[in-house]
Amino acid sequence: FKDLIEKNNDYTTNFLEIDNMISDDQILQNVENYNEFIKKHQKSFFEVDDDFLPISTYDYELKSENFKTSNGETVETRFFSDYFNSNAGNYCKGFDSDLLLIENGGDYDFEQQYNSVKARSFKSNQELVDWYVNSLKCYKEPFKYSETKIIKFSDGNKLAIKVLSTLKEDEKIIHPMGLATKSFKMLKLISSSQFLFQNEVQLKNFETNENSLFEISKKLLTRSFWENFKHPEKRENVDYYDFSKTHPVGIGLEFLALNSKNNGDIKTLREFIYTIINSGSTNFNASLHLSRNLKLVEKFKYMFGEIVMKKCNAELDLIKIMRDSVGNNTLLTLKKENIKTLENILTVDDID
Questions:
Q1: Beta pairing partners, 67
Q2: Rounded distance between C-alpha atoms, residue 286 and residue 314, angstroms
Q3: Which residues pair with 334 in a beta bridge?
C-alpha cells in the first residue's frame, strides 16, 4: 500500500485524475450498479484483476440517507454532493445544485440548500451547520458547542472519586452513571488526523504543538482574568481559576487562517500544512510560525473563559444532585471505602 501511495502521491487529493480520469458522468452512469463502480476503482488502485479474491468474493451495500429539499420533501439516496470534513471522523454531507445525483430522478431544487447538510458525530443544529459551512468559506472564529449527554460508567467513576476525596469518611454520594449533564467544547476544523505524515517523529512534533493549542486556556486564563471576568452565569465563591487548570479548552490550527497571508481561507492553510509535511519538517512551531501568530488567539480569551465557566457550573450542579439524591433506592450509593486503588488491591499482609 505504501508503494502504491508513493507512486500516486496525490491520490487522496485528486481522486478523479489518478483513477483513470473517472468523470462525473461515468460516476452517474454507475449510480445503480455501484458494485461494478467500486470494484473497478479497487482494481485500478490496487492493480489487480477480477481473480483477486476480495474482488471475486464480496459485494457491497451502500447505506441510503434521507435529505430534506427546500420545500420540505424527503429524498432517499446513496449519494451526496457536498462534503465538509472538520476533524476526520466528524463531517457533514448534503446536496448542492447537481440534480443528477438524486436517485430515481425527480426535479428537486438543492441549489445553495445548506439546510440539507447533516452533521455527523454531533447533535446537529442549524447554527452549527451555518458556522461550519461559512468557516470553510472564510474562517472568523471558533464555535462554542454544547449538548446534553448521559454519563457513562467510566466517566462517572472519575467524578465519583474526585468528589469522594473531598468528603468525610461517613459522607455519601450516589454514582452519577446514567445522569444527564451538559457538555461544552470548542469545535476544531484542523487536526493531525486529517493528514498523512512521513514518519512518527514528524507526527509526534505536530501533535505536541497541536496539544499546546488545545490547552491554550491554561496560559490565557490567569487569576487576574477570572477576577475581572464578567458573565451573568458567573457564580460567587467559585474558584474558576483552579478548575480551569484541570479543564482547559483551546483551538485548532485553523486559527492560522486569521493571519493576513491566509485571509480566512481554510483551504489555503490546509494546502500549506500539506506542503510543510511533504517538505519533511519536524519543527512545525517554526514552519507554521505558531508562536509568532499566537496573538491571534488572545481575542478569544473571553470565549474560552465562558466555556470553562459553563463546564464548572455543570459539574457543580451534577455534584449537588449526587449529594442530594442519597437515599434514593434506585441509585448506587458510594462512600470513601468504595474507592479501591491498584496499590490497595496488590497489597497483602506479610506472612510470618
A1: 75
A2: 38
A3: 173
CB atoms within 10 A of CB 175: 19
315 in Cβ contact with 159 (< 8 Å): yes
> pLDDT, tens digit, for every residue of 105-151?
344 344 444 444 555 555 556 788 788 888 988 999 999 988 888 89
* C-alpha closest to that of 252 among 17, 87, 124, 37: 87
Cα separation, 193 vs 270, whole angstroms: 12
CA–CA separation, 36 and 29 (whole Å): 11
pTM across the whole model: 0.66
What CA–CA distance (Å, rounded) separates 315 from 321? 10
Q: How far apart (Å, rounded) are the C-alpha atoms in residues 350 and 352? A: 6
| Rounded CA separation 247/253 (Å) | 20
- Provide the grid cell at 46: 490496487
Question: Which cell is 81 given?
Answer: 454532493
Q: How many CB atoms lie within 10 A of CB 91?
A: 15
**Other CB atoms within 10 Å distance of the CB of residue 141:** 14
Q: Give the C-alpha separation, 127 to 141, whole Å.
A: 14
Q: How far apart are CA 62 and CA 50, in angstroms?
A: 21
- Supply 175's cell numbers: 454514582
Cell 458567573: give the residue: 234
- CA dihedral sign, ordered 15, 17, 23, 29: negative
Cell matching residue 90: 466528524
Residue 198 is which amino acid? Q
